[in-house]
Structures are given as C-alpha cells and as structure tokens.
Design brief:
The structure is a single chain. With 308 residues, the chain is α/β, with parallel strands linked by helices. It contains ten helices and eleven strands. The chain folds into three domains: 78 residues, Winged helix-like DNA-binding domain superfamily/Winged helix DNA-binding domain (Arc Repressor Mutant, subunit A); 110 residues, D-Maltodextrin-Binding Protein, domain 2 (3-Layer(aba) Sandwich), CATH 3.40.190; 105 residues, 3-Layer(aba) Sandwich (D-Maltodextrin-Binding Protein, domain 2). Strands 3, 4, 5, 6, 9, 10 and 11 form a seven-stranded mixed beta sheet that branches. Helix 1 packs across helix 4 and helix 2 packs across helix 3.
C-alpha cells in the first residue's frame, strides 16, 4: 500500500460511503469507469478484494472495511497538516467543517453569508442532524465546530453561548385556542402534539416541561423534519412546540400562530461548541469568534425583518 496516492484514497473513501459507484463518480466529477479503474489499482496494490456485490449494489469486504478506517485517518491527518500550515498564512484561507442541529439551519446560512463576505477564502462544509448526531460528530472529531443547544453535563465539549433560543407553542390560525389571550399549561395535555424524533433537543425540551408540570403527552405524529411539523400544524393535525427561530416567515405571513400558554416561551441558548481536547486552528477560532460577536445581532435582524 506504500505506493497508493492521496487521490486514490479519496476515491476509495468516496466510493465506500456513497450509495453507488455512479453517485461517487458524480460527486468526484469523474466517470464511473475512472472510479472502477482506480479501485482496481488499489485492490491490486493491497492484494485484497475491497468490494463485493450484494444484488444490484456493492458493499465493503472485511478488508475494505479495515482499509476505510485507515484511509480516513490518513486523509484527516493531511487535512490537519494543511490547517496547521494555514497558521503561517493567516486566516485568508482554510476549511471549517461546521455541524448544526437542524433547527439552526434557519439562521446559520445568514450568519455564514456575512462571515464569508469578510473571509471569502474560507470554505465552509456544513453537516446537519439532531442533537445526538451532532454531539457524536463533535466528540469523534469529525466536526471542527458545532452550533447546538447546551451540551450534556460531563461531555468532553467546550461550549459558549452566543444567542438566546426561545421555543413557543404553535397552532393553525383556525385553531380554537388562538382566540384566547392566556392559556393554562393543562391545555397541552388535551391537544395532539406533532413531535420531533427521539434524540431531538426540542422533543426532550417539551417532554421535560410536561413531566415537570405533571402532564401527559398526547402524540399525534412524529417526524424528523421541522418543515413537516409546520405543515402538519398548518393543516390542523395538532399543535407543536418549536423554535421561534424556525417560524419567522410563517408568522409574518399569517400561516401559523403562537399560543399564549403559561410558562412559554421556553428559553434555552444557542452554543458554539468544539471538542475540549482538540486545539482550534486559527480559521476555526475566527469563525467561533465571529459567532460569539455577531450571532445574536444577525438573528435579531432576521426576526425584525420577518415581523416588519
């Protein structure tokens, strides 16, 4: 394997993780034939078959699985070296892999648009998921930074607050409860809830709130999508607790209404986090500093724009 090239390792990793060789070729902007040729070259050098057919798809052999783990280490080490050398060039260039919980995708692009205006040479790679998935990515070192809620106690994560994060109860504009100026917490137990999936921070928030209030949860539907939650609530399928930062447009257009339930909004915070024992490269530190300094201001501007 000493003669394998970095490009061949990149091709192998992409082929191993893509749903098909055709998709891997598309992502790498090469032909499927070029992918197959390079994989055959690696197999010849390693002396092992790396893929086997399973019906119409391919999957890694045991040897392929072993090589994938080491190939990732090699590529990550080279990326780390590149980032280290970037310190000698300042922060005019570089790459940041940024994880974000799915709720944050409603404002993060606006933050990054302003960041890249100031630092056009920096490339941002985004990866979204629920709270559990993003935390796992931080702990494994797959994410340089993450935008998320408060990390759990004991997690090997350094995190700082950059903005408040309110969650509200929403309903369809035609829902009978929108006529009330004030609603007791007990009303939540009588309404079907549209909920996020297990592992979601928002779901954990409402479950904790109802438990502390001694109320049971009536589940109408679960989904991994905030967009599906909003559409289901608009359609009258039930009510939901959702981040205020995800519904500015719908509130402005009158497609959703917030319910004045006692104890709401539930206040949390947005954090920028990274693995505690992983030193930040200058490019990562610059984005982190930008979030801490400008994150709340940008969110406030967005909220004002939606309500104007």
């Amino acid at each position: 394997m000493r003669h394998v090239t970095v490009r061949q390792l990149q091709i192998f990793v992409q082929a191993a993780q893509a749903p098909s060789l055709a998709r891997a070729a598309e992502d790498l902007h090469v032909t499927p034939a070029a992918i197959s040729f390079q994989l055959k070259q690696i197999e010849t050098m390693s002396g092992f078959a790396l893929f086997e057919r399973a019906g119409r798809k391919t999957r890694l052999t045991e040897a392929g699985t072993e090589l994938l783990a080491y190939a990732k280490i090699v590529l990550q080490t080279l990326q780390d070296a590149d980032q280290a050398l970037a310190r000698l060039r300042g922060v005019s260039g570089g790459r940041v892999t940024l994880g974000l919980v799915s709720t944050a995708k409603y404002f993060v692009p606006h933050v990054l648009a302003r960041f890249t205006l100031a630092y056009p040479g920096i490339t941002i790679h985004l990866r979204d998921g629920n709270r559990s998935q993003i935390l796992e990515g931080v702990l494994k070192g797959e994410l340089d930074l993450a935008i998320m809620g408060r990390p759990p106690e004991g997690a090997d994560v350094a995190a700082e607050v950059f903005a408040p994060h309110p969650s509200v109860v929403i309903a369809s504009p035609t829902h009978p409860l929108v006529a009330y100026d004030k609603l007791p917490q007990s009303i939540l137990a009588s309404e079907p809830f549209i909920l996020r999936e297990d592992g979601s921070g928002t779901r954990g928030l409402i479950e904790q709130f109802l438990t502390s209030a001694g109320l049971s949860l009536r589940v109408g539907m679960t989904t991994s999508s905030n967009e599906m939650i909003k559409q289901a609530v608009m359609a009258g399928m039930g009510i939901a607790v959702i981040s205020r930062h995800t519904i500015g447009l719908e509130l402005g257009l009158g497609l959703l209404r917030t319910l004045p339930v006692e104890g709401f909004p539930l206040m949390r915070s947005w954090y920028v986090a990274h693995r505690r024992n992983m030193p930040l490269m200058p490019v990562h530190a610059r984005l982190r500093a930008f979030l801490l300094e400008n994150g709340q201001k940008i969110i406030d501007v967005l909220e004002h724009g939606y309500s104007a």
